[in-house]
Write a structure and sequence with these properties.
Elements lengths: L12 E2 L8 E5 L5 E5 L4 E5 L13 E5 L5 E3 L2 H9 L6 E4 L9 H9 L3 E2 L8 H7 L3 E4 L7 H9 L3 E4 L8 H5 L1
Parallel strand pairs: 4-5, 6-7, 6-9, 7-8, 9-10
Antiparallel strand pairs: 1-2, 2-3, 3-4
Length: 175
Amino acid sequence: MVGSGLDALGGATPVPLEHATQFTLDEYEGGFRLASLASGDRLLVVPEGADVPADLPADVAVIQQPLANVYLVSTGTICLVDAIGALDAVSVSSVRAEDSPVEAFTERLEDGTVTYGGLYRTPDYELIAARGCPLAIENTNIDHVPEVRAKLEELGVTVLMEQSSREEDMLGRLE
C-alpha cells in the first residue's frame, strides 16, 4: 500500500444503509471498514491478518479482528451479539446473569466463561486490564461518566458507544 493512514487503504466505498441514521460505514480494499458514528467517534475495523495502517488520524480508534475478551456493557446489544454468533468473543460484562436477555449469555455468566465486571459507571478496571480487553461495547450511558471512558482508553481499550437507542426507526436499531 502506498501512502499512510486511511489514504493507504485506497478509496472508500460507502456501504448503503436503509434505515440507520446514527452511523455511516465505508469499505476499503482488503476488507477494512470505517464506521463513523453520529457521536463523532470513528472506528476502523481491521481484518484478521492485516496490519493496522501507519499514521492513522488520532481520532480513529482501531478494532482488530478477530475479537476476543470483549467487555460488553450494553444489555441491549447482547441479543445482537448473539444473533451474529459472537458471544464467544465476550469475556467481561456489566450484566448479571439474572438480567441477561439471552439464555446462552446467562449460561456463560453462570459457568464463569463471562465474568461480571461491575456497572458501566464503576467497572472493574483491574479485571478488564487482566483480561486484555481490546474493546468495550458501551451504551449511551457512558456519556454520563466521561472519566470511565477516559480510564478505559488509558488502559488501551477501544470504546464503542453503541447508539441504536438513538435510532428513530426500529429497523435502524437493528441495522
